[in-house]
Amino acid sequence: MGREISQVMGHLGAEWLERDTRVQEERTDLLMDFLLGLDATVVADIGVGTGYFALPWARRLSRGRVLGVDIQPEMLAILTERAAEEGLENVEPIQGAIDDPKLPVAAVDVVLIVDAYHEFSHPREMMEGIVRGLRPGGRLVLVEYRSEDPFVFIKDLHKMTEAQAILEVEAAGLDWVSTEDFLPQQHVLVFEKPAT
Length: 196
Ligand SMILES: C[S@@+](CC[C@H](N)C(=O)[O-])C[C@H]1O[C@@H](n2cnc3c(N)ncnc32)[C@H](O)[C@@H]1O
Known about the structure:
The chain is of the alpha/beta class. It has one domain: Rossmann fold (3-Layer(aba) Sandwich). The protein is built from seven helices and eight strands, in the order αααβαβαββαββαββ. It has helices at residues 14-17, 22-26, 28-36, 54-60, 73-86, 123-133, 162-171; strands at residues 42-46, 65-70, 91-95, 108-114, 134-146, 159-160, 175-180, 186-192. Strands 1, 2, 3, 4, 5, 6, 7 and 8 form an eight-stranded mixed beta sheet that branches. The chain is globular. The chain starts with 13 loop residues before the first helix and ends with a strand. S-adenosylmethionine binds next to strand 2.
């Protein structure tokens, strides 16, 4: 759809995802507040990495569960180990495929994708799987670095414009709801699965 796909960030980048400065650079605390404000019991973090968002989400969703999907077993091993260390029993690691997030059908209230969509080698198939996994009325929260902003100093392939993200996600059958620009460097795009 007119976009060049980036390479996957290898598991050796795990420490970078957990860097101390991330909260200030990306205001991940604001994103977490936003996620906690959504009405959700079953959530899925696709491209979960080390669980930077999945673990705090699981801590707060005491009666819900977090499905953490990744294609790299090494990332899932880190997620599993960290969840066990904290005694979190509501984190479910899922070994995804490059073209299938392997979500349960029509079971997920909110899907989160942070800095991962631009890496999906099969974005259309991944989105088909995400749409299948969302319950009717369920939401996708897509977070990507803003390509329109020259002051976001990230490689071009690791950024997306709002227009491109909407084009690709709507083509998969979700409705765009809003773009929340409360983060310093990233778009937060919210989409919904039609109720019928
Ligand atoms: C840059 S990391 C971001 C990790 C996490 N979302 C965060 O913000 O800390 C991108 C992750 O997406 C994963 N990924 C790439 N393609 C994927 C796919 N098709 N399905 C699931 N995960 C994928 C990579 O393995 C990597 O762990």
